[in-house]
Amino acid sequence: MALPTAAELEAARARLLPDVLPGPADPPLRLLFCGINPGLVSAATGHHFARPGNRFWPVLHEAGFTPRLLLPAEQGELPRWGMGITNMAARPTARADELTDAELVEGGRILHDLVERYVPLWLAVVGMGAYRTAFGDRAAIVGAQEPTIGPTRIWVLPNPSGLNAHYPKQRLVEEFARLRAAAL
To answer: Where would I find the Uracil-DNA glycosylase-like domain in this sequence (predicted)?
Structure first.
């Protein structure tokens, strides 16, 4: 896949990235991954976690969620395995730190409504800071959270962005694998 041009990336700031959610023929949603917000490459291509260097897809596979490594363009395969993807905030940015706290809080409210509509067994928020802001829980740590949304349990994962130097890939795989053991 060729990377979008600078003009295409700038135009992507005005695009919305649709959620990946089950259709009528898919099994019920067991696990909904929630990213922070679409990056510009994701918005330009229409595929979640599409920026080169983002470790989401390799980590998802290595943690045992998918039988093979998926490309971002294959995100539509997730619902057949009971998984989906959404974002905390809808606005595409080059970096997540361009979002305001108000956008994350509003995104948390919208996410709450989405979870109530689809009722996954687990919501996996990929990004500690976004979770803490959106849910008003400054003490949250990686792993299962006490609050729920109805019957849906919440798990916080580290951000798989290549910009997150605090978590090398192997640690990300371990954290995702802990979620897999609990959720699937």
So the answer is: 26-171
